[in-house]
Design a protein that fits this description.
The complex is a heterotrimer of chains A (about 100), B (about 220) and C (about 475). Chain A is mostly helical and about 100 residues long. In chain A, about 85% of the residues lie in helices and about 0% in strands. With about 220 residues, chain B is mainly alpha-helical. Helix content of chain B is about 45%, strand content about 10%. In chain B, the strands form 2 sheets. In chain B, strands 1-2 form a two-stranded antiparallel sheet. Chain B has a two-stranded antiparallel ribbon with strand order 3-4. In chain B, helix 1 (about 5-25) runs antiparallel to helix 2, helix 3 crosses helix 6 (about 190-205) and helix 5 (about 165-175) packs across helix 6. The longest helix of chain B is centred in the N-terminal third of the chain and has 29 residues, at about 30-60. The two termini of chain B are about 35 Å apart. In chain C, about 75% of the residues lie in helices and about 0% in strands. In chain C, helix 7 (about 195-230) runs parallel beside helix 13 (about 340-370), helix 8 runs antiparallel to helix 9 and helix 13 (about 340-370) packs antiparallel against helix 14. Residues about 465-480 of chain C have low confidence and may be disordered. Classes of the chains: A mainly alpha (about 100), B mainly alpha (about 220), C mainly alpha (about 475).
């Protein structure tokens, strides 16, 4: 998968990027939901900022050249899923409550 | 049967979604009916695919089927070579050179490797070591321990052994006597028979095709 | 401002649950003790090398972990089940008997681990003394005892549901989940010479427990807890439960493949396992959103403050420990280098704390609140915050230490060193690695102090408020009812 000479740099770089990649959707989700619930627009926008940052980190991961095409595409699909998740969950939460709380 | 993971993945998701919509009788994704359907659909679809793949994997993981060596591999010289296509090390099986001075028949080899595995379990080796990377991290990974250069360069002279398997056996019978660092392995009171069988198991395990794990075994960065 | 009310009569099942939680918290203490000893042995490798080497302490640390968490989760079901169906649990006598058998068995097992430790390489050792597979070290007789325990537990849930003629969505999910949970355990009850098959089936137990069926069990307990703590309507919690189960099973069942990268199984598991594994944090993000929405909607006014805290902590801890720390090493390109290093321990510690310890502590506080003669609402104290703060500080420190030492192993032993014996030693003697050992030990002590405060708090919370209220009421000449 990886060029024999690459490992140390690759491990260091990709692990850090993966960590950030995984952390960002959490922060984005929390800020987005808090923003929607408290009606504070700046929180929601801050959340979007983290979502954008996640797409940025995805770009960085692709730019390292350490990921073969299959894995690069996989990472993009996953990033998109995480970006969609919080607004989707928010819409779902509102719909559930509307339907079931009188 | 050549399975490509992408086809399986797409099939799994498509089937689960279609089934979910069918079960919820077209209710939208914002309704509880859809998610009850999705729960049932994803549970059953993913389990079915897992079972199907498991049957295939079990077939491919039989000793002698290609990825897993037959028990008689212990009679052979084994090594690791770089596979250019797969971009990692793969085990290679060489000449029949014998093990502990003789050639073991298939059922003898199986019994010996089995005794080795049973001993490894009975002595709880996984509670310090890792096998195929699984276990505890207090002691070295044993996946390719058979190939470790220290058996020949360090251990043979200290224990006075002629062959690698002899060196491994003698060392295992009293590890704290020959410490190789601040962390000493305790003496687990292995009998000679048990120690020999453990070495057999380690040799057999070193010939498993592990998709390259651990990477570049035995080669430091400069040596690659 | 708190009020008290008379506690309704407890069901027999709930009295059993109280015993479950007492034993769970006690086993937690044992787990921490053995963890501390193991951590010390990393600092001083000669300590107790002859009498109780690292392998013995780790076995006890890991086994008490699994048992106390499972006991806590099962206890949670015994607590909520009679309330869910409005009647006593069917077969409660059998449940009580098997419970004391299990307690006795656990004590015997701990004794075997500590004083016998291992046996000859014979089948009899695997049946009686030591089976020696990680997390499944227990000998076969223990496996049978556990199967019996789970069978009776499942009977309790099933028979009670049938007898009550009331099948809620939550109960259906629980029943299916328990059948799967029990059946999966049997996947580990075998001996295989072929290590690849051994580990293939072993992961059916371990992964499909903690990354599938246990998650669903927690989902069920969370649903009941939300109804109790925040008054969230049933239909809402059940819909969330369906969503979470759909996502957990949708990602976690094939996410099992992330354990099949390197064990001798075919290459298609690399892509399959990597893909679904990378999606496994998705339901965890959903749970964070869900927890915030439900709690925020009630402006955090709840009948039991420490329980709500641990509920929120569970959502975040699960995401960070299991989701983030897991994702960080899940892509095969990285995992090839980090597999079998202390990074796995970092992930394991934070994930178990976030996902399961938090759940059991939430339940423990609910049980504690309802175990007093009078129920205090809202339940609160000064001490639960100290306990939580210390334990969270402790686990963050431990995880951080493991992360750094694991990272060191990944770079030096694997990437640079070629994974040999020499490379292993180079890694564990490297200053980045050795510097973490003292910190890990220190944070372990912080965890222990937090635990002691927790025990004190669980024992006393809701009791002092009672005496204050009683005194106030009596002094004012009012009735004490």
């Amino acid at each position: 998968m990886i060029d024999a000479k690459a490992p140390i740099e690759m491990v260091r770089t990709l692990m850090v990027l993966e960590f950030i990649f995984a952390m960002l959707p959490g922060i984005y989700g929390v800020l987005y939901i808090l923003g929607q619930m408290t009606q504070r627009r700046w929180l929601t926008i801050a959340g979007w900022g983290f979502a954008l940052a996640q797409l940025g980190v995805t770009g960085l991961m692709l730019r390292t050249g350490y990921l073969e095409p299959f894995w690069a595409r996989l990472v993009v699909v996953i990033a998109v899923a995480y970006v969609i998740m919080p607004p989707a969950m928010w819409r779902l939460a509102k719909a559930i409550y509307r339907a079931n709380v009188s | 049967m050549n399975i490509h993971w992408l086809e399986v993945t797409i099939a799994a998701i498509v089937v689960a979604v279609v089934l979910a919509r069918a079960l919820s009788r077209g209710a939208g994704w914002l309704s509880w009916q859809f998610w009850r359907g999705a729960m049932i659909a994803s549970g059953f679809t993913m389990t079915a695919i897992l079972l199907l793949l498991s049957f295939m994997t079990v077939e491919e993981a039989r000793p002698g089927a290609g990825r897993i060596p037959p028990w008689t591999v212990i009679n052979h010289e084994i090594g690791l070579k770089w596979d250019v296509e797969r971009q990692w090390q793969v085990p290679v099986v060489g000449e029949e050179t014998g093990f502990f001075g003789r050639v073991w028949e298939p059922d003898e080899a199986e019994a010996l490797v089995s005794k080795g595995k049973m001993t490894i379990q009975a002595r709880n080796c996984m509670e310090c070591h890792t096998l195929l990377g699984n276990g505890a991290y207090y002691a070295p990974d044993l996946t390719r321990a058979w190939h470790d250069p220290w058996w020949d360069s360090r251990i043979k002279p200290i224990v006075g052994a002629e062959t690698r398997e002899e060196a491994m056996m003698r060392w295992l019978m009293n590890p704290p006597q020959y410490p190789q660092g601040a962390r000493r392995m305790p003496n687990l009171n292995l009998t000679e028979e048990e120690a020999r069988s453990v070495v057999a198991f380690l040799k057999w395990m070193a010939a498993i095709d592990t998709n390259g794990f651990p990477p570049h075994f035995g080669l430091t960065y400069e040596q690659r | 401002m708190s009020t008290t009310q008379t506690r309704p009569k407890l069901f027999e099942s709930q009295k059993l649950a109280q015993w479950y939680f007492i034993v769970a918290i006690a086993l937690f203490g044992l787990q921490l003790t053995f963890g501390l000893i193991a951590a010390y042995q990393q600092l001083n490798p000669e300590f107790w090398l002859e009498v109780a080497p690292f392998m013995t302490n780790r076995t006890l640390h890991v086994n008490t972990l699994v048992v106390w968490l499972l006991v806590g989760l099962v206890g949670g079901v015994y607590w909520f089940l009679p309330q869910e169906v409005g009647r006593e649990v069917v077969g409660i006598k059998a449940a009580k008997i098997i419970w004391w058998v299990i307690v006795a068995g656990v004590l015997v097992l701990a004794g075997i681990y500590l004083f016998v430790q291992y046996g000859p390489g014979e089948p009899s050792t695997l049946w009686l003394i030591m089976e020696g597979r990680e997390y499944l070290e227990a000998p076969r007789w223990v496996d049978f005892a556990l199967v019996l325990w789970v069978a009776i537990f499942l009977f309790n849930v099933l028979a009670t549901t049938v007898a009550s003629r009331r099948v809620t969505g939550t109960l259906l999910v629980l029943i299916f989940d328990l059948v799967a949970l029990g059946a999966l355990y049997s996947a580990g009850m075998h001996y295989s010479i072929n290590l690849t098959m051994d580990q293939f089936l072993w992961w059916w137990v371990v992964h499909l427990w903690v990354e599938a069926t246990w998650e669903v069990l927690v989902g069920v307990l969370m649903a009941w807890s939300l109804m109790y703590l925040l008054g969230t309507p049933r239909k809402v919690v059940e819909t969330w439960l369906f969503i979470e189960v759909a996502l957990v099973f949708g990602t976690g069942i094939l996410g099992l493949g992330h354990h099949y990268f390197w064990i001798g199984t075919p290459e298609y598991w690399l892509g399959l396992g990597g893909f679904f594994s990378a999606l496994e944090p998705l339901p965890l993000v959903a749970m964070v959103v869900h927890a915030l929405y439900d709690a925020g909607g009630h402006r955090l006014m709840a009948v039991n403050k420490p329980a709500v805290f641990w509920l929120i902590a569970q959502a975040f801890g699960n995401f960070i420990g299991a989701g983030v720390w897991g994702f960080m090493q899940t892509l095969p390109q990285i995992n090839m280098y980090s597999h079998g290093t202390q990074l796995a321990a970092a992930h394991g510690h934070l994930a178990f704390f976030g996902a399961y310890l938090s759940t059991v502590l939430m339940l423990a506080y609910i049980v504690a609140q309802n175990s007093r003669a009078r129920i205090t609402i809202p339940l609160n104290s000064r001490w639960w915050k100290w306990a939580a703060g210390l334990m969270i500080l402790g686990i963050v420190g431990i995880t951080g230490a493991f992360t750094i030492s694991g990272f060191t192993q990944t770079l030096i032993e694997r990437a640079e060193g070629g994974s040999t014996w020499a490379a292993f030693i180079r890694a564990y003697t490297h200053p980045w690695y050795t510097s973490t050992l003292g910190w890990r030990y220190l944070f372990g002590w912080i965890m222990v102090i937090g635990y002691l405060v927790l025990v004190f708090d669980l024992w006393t919370i809701g009791k002092r408020a009672l005496s204050t209220v009683k005194a106030t009421v009596t002094a004012a000449g009012g009735h004490d009812d």
